[in-house]
Design a protein that fits this description.
The complex is a heterodimer of chains A (293) and B (282). By secondary structure, chain A is mainly alpha-helical. Chain A has 13 helices and two strands, in the order αββαααααααααααα. Chain A has a single domain, classed as MetI-like fold, CATH 1.10.3720. The chains are: A mainly alpha (293), B mainly alpha (282).
Chain lengths: 293, 282
């Protein structure tokens, strides 16, 4: 934690931590405490008076069918994104780990979507699936399927799931691939000598050995699906049609900035905060079991 | 040596190539769209092969702007994004390095308190405190400014942890030697710690640059002035205008420009990028 040898006591360290601390207090701790405080307030229709109502906002949220729908929708959305992006990245990494010589070429070709902003990824997918001119919508039309994510809620959900998963595959691939490359080749060779085929080696050796990576990625993907997909949803569907793609983070934004429901939005923020804190704790509890790269 | 069956190798390559194509397909479509004129882009089916209007569209996007952001040059939005990304990257690296230095090399009251205060920021992403943070920035009159765009995003627990980790691996003998030679803390920091952390700084820079460039929600909230639009949120404005005037070729050209800088950074500095990603995230 601290060096055995250090510098003589002086006021210098305070100046060194001051910028970071100042920003932390002004833009993190103070707003967070405000969010908690506001989550217990109710404002009247004209914004003239506020009343302190303790946990009423929370009780109201959890008895509000719309909020619960959004919650379930978010869970479904993150489960789908996590599953699609993790499983396809795992397949790609396992195969890239097998091919000799070309592995890093494949890595280069697979990692760059990481750099694409979520909102930009949304624009790309939206263009491909555009009901009037999109190329994929056109092909779907050829085979007799009428695609329209502007009016069909399931289509819209599928579209944002695909766009979000597409963007996340490279991140997952990178960690899976690094984890697999770190497994000693002698283990794999020993199993091969014992007569285990590629599939068997994968399930009995590689998969168990990268399980810490998988766990880490599981948490990271949930965080991603909960928070970082705002850009995709905002750019592609704006939560619609008829709230079909409204996830928690979008609802906080929408209720706070568009609906101007101060207390309700703050209460939702606090719930999200609790989710992040929970995920972070889970992450850190298992940190020591993480593999070394 | 593990057996190499031609059939399974072929199968592996086949699936991987399918994967690469699947991942690249949206970008190919974007590129193709950006290389045709507006008239071609409203005829179904859309082309799958590039046309010859690429540079025309490029020029158009830079001189006239697109959609809702008409009259707003794409060049200006790119510049805003660049300034924001660089300010976030330099700011984050500077303040994290300084605080990690203080926490590792000095013993002073409240050291651990400060450490935990920085740690907590890990649990408070901007999305969960948007409204109050917006209020703070508005009260400080930082709306529609580069400061407002960048400063609230530069505090970072992960970067501080990474530098702390790096400094902890620096041998104590270096500090002893430096002190015998009469070097003070600032001298030690500049002449020894900075050069030692060079690759870490570069790796972190790559990650934070991409993070800053790709910001969406924050610029969306605090910029109302068109002159301050960043390219990533600018695209959104254009897509919204698509109902009236579907200038898909120009929109896709802008999309291409928006993703070019971070993609070039990732591919060009792949080694640093992977180092940065694996070291800051754990």
């Amino acid at each position: 934690m601290l060096k055995r040898v250090h510098f003589k006591p002086s006021p210098l360290p305070y100046f060194l931590v001051a910028p970071q601390l100042l920003i932390t207090i002004v833009f993190f701790l103070w707003p967070a405490s405000q969010a908690i405080y506001q989550s217990m307030l109710v404002e009247d229709a004209f914004g003239l008076s506020t009343e302190f109502v303790w946990f009423n906002n929370f009780i109201e949220l959890f008895s509000d069918g719309f909020y619960l729908d959004t919650l379930y929708r978010t869970l479904f959305f993150s489960a789908a994104v996590t599953f699609i992006s993790l499983s396809s990245a795992l397949i790609f990494a396992a195969l890239a780990d097998r091919v000799i010589g070309a592995a890093t070429t494949y890595r280069t070709l697979l990692i760059w979507p990481y750099a694409v902003a979520p909102a930009v990824a949304g624009a790309l997918w939206m263009f491909m699936f555009d009901p009037t001119i999109g190329i994929v919508a056109y092909f779907l039309d050829l085979v007799g399927y009428d695609w329209n994510h502007r009016v069909n809620g399931s289509h819209a959900m599928l579209l944002v799931i695909l766009a979000s998963s597409w963007k996340q595959i490279s991140y997952n691939f990178l960690f899976f691939f690094a984890g697999m490359q770190a497994i000693p080749k002698s283990l794999i060779e020993a199993a091969a000598i014992d007569g285990a085929g590629p599939a068997r080696r994968f399930w009995t050796i590689i998969f168990p050995l990268i399980s810490p990576v998988t766990f880490f990625l599981l948490v990271m993907n949930i965080v991603y699906a909960f928070f970082d997909t705002f850009g995709i949803i905002h750019a592609v569907t704006k939560g619609g049609p008829a709230k079909a793609t409204e996830i928690l983070i979008y609802k906080v934004y929408n209720d706070g900035f568009i609906g101007l429901d101060l207390g309700g939005s703050a209460a939702q923020s606090v719930i999200l905060m609790i989710i992040v804190i929970g995920l972070t704790i889970v992450q850190f509890r298992y940190i020591e079991r993480r593999v070394e790269y | 040596m593990i057996e190499q069956r031609p059939l399974t190798s072929f199968f592996s390559h086949f699936i991987l190539i399918c994967g690469v194509l699947l991942v690249a397909f949206p970008i190919w479509i974007t590129f193709v769209a950006a290389s045709h004129d507006t008239a071609r882009m409203v005829q179904v089916p859309l082309p799958l092969l590039p046309g010859n209007h690429f540079f025309e569209n490029l020029l158009e996007a830079f001189t006239h702007g697109v959609g809702n952001a008409k009259g707003q040059s794409v060049g200006l939005m790119l510049m805003n994004s660049l300034i924001m990304a660089l300010m976030i990257a330099f700011g984050k690296i500077a303040i994290s390095m300084l605080s990690a230095f203080a926490i590792v090399y000095f013993r002073f009251p409240f050291r651990m308190t400060f450490f935990w205060m920085i740690f907590i920021t890990l649990m408070l992403p901007v999305e969960v405190r948007i409204l109050p943070t917006f209020e703070v920035v508005a009260n400080l009159h930082m709306l529609n400014s580069y400061w407002g765009l960048s400063i609230p995003l530069i505090a970072s627990a992960t970067a501080t942890f990474m530098f702390r980790q790096t400094f902890l691996t620096v041998p104590d003998e270096l500090l002893e030697a430096a002190r015998i030679d009469g070097a003070g803390p600032i001298r030690f920091f500049i002449d020894i710690l900075l050069p030692i952390s060079r690759t870490n700084i570069a790796a972190l820079f790559v990650i934070v640059f991409i993070y800053g460039w790709n910001q969406y929600m924050w610029p969306l909230l605090i910029t109302t002035d068109k002159d301050m639009y960043t390219i990533v949120m600018g695209i959104k404005q254009m897509v919204e205008a698509v109902e009236e005037a579907p200038e898909w070729s120009l929109i896709m050209m802008t999309t291409l420009l928006a993703m070019l800088p971070p993609v070039v950074v990732v591919i060009g500095m792949q080694r640093l990028f992977i180092k940065g990603l694996t070291e800051t995230e754990k």
